[in-house]
Each structure stands twice: as C-alpha cells, then as structure tokens.
Amino acid sequence: LKDNVGESQGQEFRSQIEKIDWAASVTYISKEEALERGEEMFGEFGKTLTEGFADSNPFPASLEIYITDTLVAPEKLSQHVNQIRYFSQVEDVKFEEEASEFIRKVEMVLLGLGGLMGGASVIIVCFSIMLTAYFRREEIRVLRLVGATYWYIRVPLIAQGIFLGFIGSLSGIVSFYTLFRVSVPRITEIQFIPLDQLGLIILGGVLLGLLGSIAPIRRYVNV
C-alpha cells in the first residue's frame, strides 16, 4: 500500500477487497507488523534491523489476499492482479507468477500421463477379456449351439470389463489418497480431490473398462 494510506484507511480497503467474489480471505499487515516479520526473517540480525529502523520504518503496510481457487491459470491470476492494481491505495502488487506457471505445466504433464494411463487401462482390460473369452471359447460354442443369445454370452464379459475398470480407478484413488495423506503435513494448503470429481474419475474408469471389453467380445463371441 502507499505510504499515505493510514491504518484505518487500510482496514477500510481490506473490507472493500473482501467483497470481491474471488477473494477468499484478506489480511491487513500494518507497518509495525511488517517490521516484526522482517525481524523474524533475518533471524539473529533481526534485532539490529529493528533497532536501526526504530525512528523510521521503511516497511510498507500491505494486504495479503488469498483467492478462492486452489489452482488458477496464469491468465486469470493476472486479471486478478490488474484488478487490484486499479485501486488508488495500491503502490505495487506481488504475486506467485512462477508458482502459477509451474502448476500449469504440472497440469499439462498430468493430463498427458492420464491419457497414457487411460490407453494402457483399455489395453489391459482388452487383453484380460480376450484371455477369458479365449479360454472359454468351447463353452461359448456350446452356448451358441444350444441357442443362447449373443447378449446372454456378452453380458458377463462386459460386466467383467466394467468391474475391472471400477476396481482400477478405485485402487488409483486409494493409492493417491494415501500419498496425499503422507504429504499433507508439508503441503497443508492443498485439498484432496472433491467428491464430484472422484465420481467422474470412477465413471471414467468404468467407461474405459467397457471400451476395453468391446473388441475381444466382438471377436470371440461371434465365432
């Protein structure tokens, strides 16, 4: 904040920023609190620092703003920053641009890995159903001879593919949650995947299992 913004004006400005929809929490840091933080930051030299600035405090008052989104695109974050810079009380805005860009790159890598793992899941389910159908090919022929319909033969194999997809996605979630719980003490700001997204992950696993069961069923059941 600018030097001419007093504490009462800073508190009023904090209340004004809190009304913005993307602002989760806003904390006002006075010049005295900023000086105390500087003392803690410099450790054993901090006391000397505060004594040297006893008459003139060079640290400005500031606002710490936390946004509602845990992960946000750099473009959207820049829009938030520009919105804050518009206010006359603001001298400068500092934000974690590098961290946001890093998160974006991590998201792209995870999407790529997710695509590869999804393809691998389809192949694994496909081979599993293929082996099941192959080793039971004689039973399938007998069922065909006695008049069993295609769907009567297909449904158990399709159910197996769906079950494998469900178990695979559920196992992945459990493994990731275990890793998340181990990392929580170090990364307390990150929350686990919301329930609605967990449901989508499981649904995606079921669909991949269904997709992986189609090809071997069409080949062996139609024999």
For the largest beta-sheet, the strand count, sense and barrel status come to: 2 strands, antiparallel
Q: Give the domain tally.
A: 2
SSE order, one letter for each helix or strand = HEHHEHHHHH
Classify the secondary structure makeup into a structural class: mainly alpha
The stretches of 5 or more residues where confidence is low (pLDDT under 50) are none
Summed over residues and divided by their number, the pLDDT gives a mean of 78
Content of β-strand: 5-15%
User: Helix count, per DSSP?
Assistant: 8
End-to-end span in angstroms? 77 Å
Spatial order of the strands forming the largest sheet? 1-2
Short summary:
The chain is mainly alpha-helical and 223 residues long. It contains eight helices and two strands, in the order αβααβααααα.
What do you see in this structure?
Helices cover 67% and strands 6% of the residues. It is mainly alpha-helical and 223 residues long. The chain folds into 2 domains: 7-95, Alpha-Beta Plaits (2-Layer Sandwich); 100-220, no CATH class. The protein has a two-stranded antiparallel sheet. The mean pLDDT is 78.
